[in-house]
């Protein structure tokens, strides 16, 4: 029953990707920007969680909350300082700025605290269950339930609250939303806040699960989360969740069958295949280009 | 007649620059440090100019240029180290294989646009890097030791070849077709330009010169490792083109020369260097999104008062 175990591992990893991918997909949906700095917000979240746990002796959930709030503020700051002026710039200018912001956060962090990694403290007791012959750790179940809980909260915010309605309206048509009296700037900031909070949560979860964090840890998960977002159909929230899970499972399977060095390549191969054969993603609709 | 005269004038000027520097290197006025700096500068200029063709002229936003650099570097290193080919042939083979890699990457991914193309090229570059990382024949993660064969002569003439070919390509009808693709792909298509063909040609040509730079690069540093060709290398090349101005050949050259010097002075402070790089990227995009030179060339500034009689693309 080893495959059940691998499946659970894959889904736990996938739920981390999904949490990051949600931020990508929400931001892309609303301002059509690939926020390259999103992976670094994830890194910042992991470090804030680390300092909250090891510095102040907090438990997992308070640390998660602090990291989420701090990342939300951080995300809004990045948006206000760097991206707000670029609303009417070309896509390439916006993309280059995002790359610049990402490098700035990474190397600013290295400049402040050095590049050495930190070992995450043990905050969740780790028991192993025997479930139909498969060994499943309580940690991965915990991670899975926290991620699913956060995704449910996100669904609630997007579909049942006023700000969620505003977000959907702005992503559909920003001009028309403005005419209907929606404050577009605040809505975009709220999107960044929610997306960054999810990335911060993913950072803490990643730290607890993999126990090692460093200032450049956000690069690869960030790109992979983007792959997950594209896989599910960028701009579509359930797509990001499914895409993240699929990617996590595929990566775990590739490692499990003995190609662990090729694991990172698997994500990119998926990306390229999906871009070539179905650029709008699993859940996406084809939009026709108008001249 | 006049155009070819200008061309030969520049050519003679270039040869004089080469001869003076070569004389100073053999005469000992320029020590090892400065000759290495000049070679590195030439390599970076070749990379900047080759990416300029893809991003600046054809408007295809590729952020995976380091992948082709890696192909050129590894293939030419294999040629000299394993098959004992002469360095010149190895450079050529490396560049040709890189351009084939460019074709393989370009044909599927150039169907995509904008952000998607950027991510796809990034993905391809990573795949290329991971392939080298997992190939024991070229040393895997430990890297591959290589003899130093790159000299100022090789670096300079490769640079000259790159600039001449790309400048002339840009001015030819093919280059203008590429510019049309950059300005408006749909309109270019409607005017009967085979947009896919020109995008792929520009991409393969850019990859060819990136591969050439790769050959020089690997034979300059004694050891190549897959980690040298990651995201950061691609962004290094990107920043030359962006800072110089998307669409300006001389801008790309100036930016590459300046930033090579800056990074040479900051080699002891790598994170300061990256902070400066990233701030430059952000500030340039926020306050001068067209880069230092925009789409102008430096020669445009020497043409005050002269009126060209039509047909000159660069005059506004």
Number of strands of chain B: 2
Helix fraction of chain A, binned, reads over 70%
What is the chain-wise order of helices and strands of chain A? HHHHEEEHHHHEHHH
* Number of contiguous helices of chain B: 12
| Biggest β-sheet strands, sense, barrel of chain B | 2 strands, antiparallel
Instruction: Kindly report the average pLDDT value of chain A.
Output: 86
Return the structural class of chain A.
mainly alpha
Q: Which oligomeric state applies?
A: heterodimer
Give a quick summary of the entry.
The complex is a heterodimer of chains A (291) and B (316). Chain A is mainly alpha-helical and 291 residues long.
List the helices and strands and how they pair.
The complex is a heterodimer of chains A (291) and B (316).
Chain A: H1 2-31, H2 38-56, H3 60-83, H4 91-113, E1 118-119, E2 128-131, E3 134-137, H5 138-160, H6 162-172, H7 174-179, H8 184-210, E4 212-213, H9 219-232, H10 237-256, H11 263-277
Antiparallel strand pairs in A: 1-4, 2-3
Helix pairs in contact in A: 1-5, 1-8, 1-9, 1-10, 2-3, 2-8, 2-9, 3-8, 5-6, 5-8, 6-8, 9-10, 9-11, 10-11
Chain B: H1 2-27, H2 32-57, H3 65-82, H4 87-109, H5 114-133, E1 144-145, H6 152-171, H7 173-183, H8 185-190, H9 195-218, E2 223-224, H10 231-244, H11 249-265, H12 270-287
Helix pairs in contact in B: 2-6, 2-9, 2-10, 2-11, 3-4, 3-5, 3-9, 4-9, 6-7, 6-9, 7-9, 10-11, 10-12
